[in-house]
Each structure stands twice: as structure tokens, then as C-alpha cells.
Specification:
Largest sheet: 10 strands, antiparallel
Structural class: alpha+beta
Shape: elongated
Oligomer: single chain
Radius of gyration: 27 Å
Strand content: 15-25%
Helix content: 25-40%
Low-confidence stretches: 185-194
Mean pLDDT: 88
């Protein structure tokens, strides 16, 4: 494609090319004096796009002469880039690597600066601001240098001019990111973040799997069984077989892609970013137990362990974020790695409406049975009080701060250290709920656990019941993925199940 205009720099020529109707789904850059390292280079790039659903792909290259002999410094791979912090590291360097490839619809939207220097760096910053960049550290092309090459022997004046230009790009990018934090993007590039109702409605309109499972949720079969003064709702929910029957042994986890990583999420599943001291991704759970069922996971892949993060006060900060930015009346809950988490290899919470959780609905009655177990004054003048709740069908330790969102870090850490730690595990076994109660204040509830699944889960024949209790099961909604189990369950069986999985 030969431009008719004579005012186009390298970036302007790029824009002309990517807007041509024959430009395909992906646009890949290669300078005319360079070579792909193998016939599979383009396929490797396309595979990366499709596997990780990224907006841009950057590879690595080797410096050579025209005899393809390696020149110093050899391979340029920019390994300072990481999946979790690459978008920030990009602000500390003068280039992101090469070859560069782009998802064409986004490249047409963002456009390339019409310059002949730094246009690739400006693009990398712009893409990393909002979108995922996939990195390939294998050598994908050979960057050939010849004697007198203009990039190889720049004057100090030209180097200063180039560095000044890239400094201006960094300054502009930082200002844009600061503006983005003041007015965060919603899932559809609108500001500010959308309400829960709008977000969920949008997802159900655009995601057939989620819509099917949420429509089915309105018609699930249930039974109510009593354990003393507590009513337990048994729910037959076949869509939950994905979680209830999940294999959570180390070999099975290692063999499957992590479905909570952004790179592996379904294409239709949208994400709202929650920026705390690290970024979290809020998404609609496609296999709901309750209406408005949300998953809130870290963007980085890390093990499901909350006990070592007490000082970060994540449950209360997430509750606070939801109330300010998304919807009031939500509770955040946590399944330990051996207490109902179907993704124990990725740190995450979940959230549902308080009004749908039996434990929270009867909280006022349960507080009448509370026995004080500890007290901690807080730096803001408030106090956190620990209680044992004796009117529930299983043990509960509650931590309550009146007058706002706060928890007693030392009080909670002392309680967690009192629980047994199983060999090879990173924290005691427990489930957690956190919510803001207008009468009592901020409430964090710990439900200590002894086992992930009851004995009936692995029993044979009629003795088998496929139930795998997580936080919501401990809060009064026992989920089974088989209709026959719904009919077989009775109060004595329920009592035995809860006896086996709790202290």
C-alpha cells in the first residue's frame, strides 16, 4: 500500500494500513530491514491473541548483523514486564519490546501518533492503560544492524531529544491514568462505574450461559429442614455441579487453566476493576446460588489465603467499595482453600445480597445469644468486640465494630491462631461473611471448619450425597447438584453433615 500523501510519518502510515479494508483481525509490525526468526512466528502471535484474549502482543528479538551473527547485547526480551505490573513498569523504560502486534479494531480506535519516533512506545502505553498485553519471551524476529545505522550511533543531542519526547509521553500517560482513577471506567467504557443492577442486566443480555442459569435459578426446587431453631434451605441446583463436583486436588488444579484469571475468562464475561492496594476483578458468577451472585478475585494469580492478609482489612474495604460504587446491602464472603473454594489456586471473594442469606436475616435474633469473647480498642476511638454466637447450628465467632467499617486486627489474628492448622495448608479452615449492619455496625463472622466435604460425598450407592459445603451452605442454603439428593436429605442427615465439616 503506497500512500499518496507526503505528510505521513511512520505512525501515519500505520493508520493508513490498518484502516484498509483488507487489513485482517490482527496487525503485525515488522521493519523492512528485519526478519522473522522462523516460519511459525505469525502463528505463535495469533495463538497468543486467541489463548489470552489480549489486545496487544509483544515478542522478543535478537540483534544481528546482515550475516545473522549475534551482536551485543544479544536477545532483547524486556523481562521487567510482568502480567500483574507490566502496565506500570512500562512507564519506567523507553520501549516495550518487539515485534508488536495488535487487535485491529482496538488499534483503529486508539490510532497511532503520526510521528516517526516513539509512536510504538506511545501505543504500548495507551494499550496497557486499559487492556491486557500478552508477552512472548521467545525470539520472534531478528533485528539486523548495518554499519552506520541511524539507530545504532545517535548523537548526544539526538538522544536527549528522543528521551525528552518519551518523557513527555510518560507525563501525558500518567495524567490520563490519574484521570481514570478519578473517574474509573465501567465495563462498557462509561464513567463512573455502573450500578450492580445495570451491570447484571447488561451481562444477562449479552451472555447466554449466565442468562440461562439465572433464569433457571428462579425455578430451582427447594426444601426447608429444621435444625433446632434454625431453618436450612436445601436447594437442587444442577448448574452448581461445576463447583460442587470440582476436583481440587493439586494434580487436577495444575492440569486445568485457572478460570479466575482474566486471560481465561469467557469472552462474554465483563470485568469491573476494584483498585485497592492491588487490583481486583469483579464479575458476575455464571453459576449462581442466589440472584446477583458476584465473584471478586485478584487480577494476579495467587493462592487462596486470607489469614495472612488480616492487616489489609480486605473484607471491610470490599464491602465499603461495593456500598460506595456499586450497590448497598451486599455481603462479602470467603471460602477457604479447603472449605468450599472450587478455585483454591486463585485468591477471591464472592458477594450476594444480605437479604438472601438466612444467617444474616436472623442476625438480630442470633445476637441475643452472643457471649463476649474479647475486646480491642481501635486507633479511631472505636472498639471491636468478639462474640461467640450460641444460637446457631454450628460454631460462630463474630467481630463487631459499632459506628463504622473497622475490625480488630490483633483480635482476629489471635482467634485465627487458636484454630488448628492442617499439615501442608497455608491457613486454618474457615468460612467468612462480612457486612455492614445499620444497628450493630460492621460485622465479620468466622465459621471454623474441620473438613472440606462430609463422608457421604465419597460414599457409594444410596449412601452417597453430593454436597460440598461452602460459605453459603454454612449460612443456611445447602446446595446439591442432584435431584435425588434433595429428596434423600432429612434433618438427621443434615445434622451429621454439618457435624463432620465444622468444629
Amino acid at each position: 500500500l503506497i500512500p499518496e500523501r507526503d505528510d505521513l510519518g511512520i505512525g501515519g502510515c500505520w493508520n493508513l494500513g490498518v484502516h484498509h479494508p483488507l487489513c485482517g483481525r490482527f496487525a503485525v509490525q515488522l521493519d523492512s530491514d528485519d526478519l522473522y526468526s522462523s516460519p511459525s512466528t505469525l502463528q505463535t502471535i495469533v495463538d497468543k491473541f486467541r489463548r489470552e484474549r489480549c489486545a496487544m502482543v509483544i515478542g522478543s528479538y535478537r540483534m544481528t548483523n546482515f550475516q545473522l551473527e549475534t551482536l551485543p547485547p544479544g536477545v532483547i526480551d524486556h523481562k521487567e514486564w510482568t502480567d500483574t505490573n507490566g502496565h506500570n513498569n512500562a512507564l519506567r523504560i523507553n520501549g516495550l519490546g518487539a515485534p508488536r502486534a495488535f487487535f485491529t479494531p482496538l488499534l483503529r480506535k486508539i490510532r497511532v501518533p503520526n510521528t516517526s519516533y516513539g509512536e510504538d512506545y506511545a501505543l504500548g502505553l495507551a494499550f496497557s492503560r486499559e487492556y491486557r498485553i500478552g508477552r512472548i519471551y521467545d525470539v520472534l524476529y531478528l533485528c539486523r544492524r548495518w554499519e552506520g545505522n541511524s539507530d545504532a550511533a545517535l548523537s548526544i543531542e539526538k538522544q536527549n531529544q528522543n528521551n525528552s519526547y518519551k518523557d513527555s509521553l510518560r507525563t501525558l500517560e500518567i495524567r490520563k491514568r490519574q484521570a481514570l482513577l478519578r473517574h474509573p471506567l465501567s465495563w462498557e467504557d462509561a464513567a463512573p462505574a455502573a450500578s450492580a443492577e445495570t451491570f447484571i442486566r447488561h451481562q444477562l443480555d449479552t451472555w447466554p450461559l449466565a442468562r440461562k442459569n439465572y433464569e433457571a435459578l428462579a425455578h430451582v426446587q427447594t426444601r426447608t429442614l429444621s435444625l433446632g431453631t434454625n431453618d436450612i434451605t436445601v436447594q437442587f441446583n444442577p448448574a452448581r455441579a461445576v463447583s460442587t463436583c470440582a476436583k481440587v486436588d493439586k494434580a487436577s488444579i495444575a492440569a486445568r487453566p485457572c478460570f479466575l484469571c482474566l486471560s481465561h475468562k469467557p469472552e462474554e464475561q465483563e470485568s469491573v476493576r476494584i483498585q485497592l492496594d492491588e487490583p481486583f476483578s469483579l464479575r458476575l458468577n455464571p453459576y449462581p446460588i442466589l440472584p446477583g451472585h458476584l465473584t471478586i478475585s485478584t487480577e494476579s494469580h495467587q493462592w487462596q489465603t486470607l489469614a495472612d492478609k488480616t492487616s489489609r482489612r480486605l473484607p471491610e474495604r470490599l464491602v465499603n467499595w461495593l456500598e460506595k460504587n456499586f450497590a448497598s446491602g451486599y455481603t462479602v464472603f470467603y471460602n477457604g482453600a479447603q472449605c468450599g473454594a472450587s478455585a483454591p489456586d486463585h485468591f477471591h471473594f464472592q458477594a450476594v445480597r444480605q437479604e438472601d442469606v438466612p444467617l444474616i436475616r436472623q442476625w438480630e435474633k442470633l445476637m441475643s445469644t452472643a457471649v463476649e469473647k474479647g475486646f480491642e480498642p481501635l486507633s479511631d476511638g472505636k472498639s471491636c468486640i468478639a462474640y461467640d454466637i450460641e444460637g446457631y447450628f454450628c460454631p460462630i465467632r463474630a467481630f463487631i465494630t459499632q459506628g463504622g467499617l473497622a475490625t480488630g486486627v490483633r483480635l482476629i489474628d489471635s482467634y485465627l491462631h487458636s484454630l488448628p492448622l492442617h499439615e501442608g495448608e497455608t491457613e486454618p479452615r474457615y468460612n467468612l461473611f462480612a457486612w455492614n449492619n445499620p444497628r450493630y455496625g460492621f460485622v465479620t463472622v468466622y465459621i471454623p471448619r474441620t473438613a472440606h466435604r462430609p463422608q457421604c460425598y465419597t460414599a457409594e450407592g444410596d449412601a452417597q450425597l453430593i454436597v460440598s459445603p461452602g460459605a453459603l451452605d454454612m449460612a443456611g442454603i445447602l446446595v446439591t447438584a442432584r435431584e435425588e439428593d434433595l429428596q434423600k436429605l432429612d434433618a438427621d442427615t443434615l445434622r451429621q453433615i454439618y457435624h463432620e465439616v465444622t468444629h
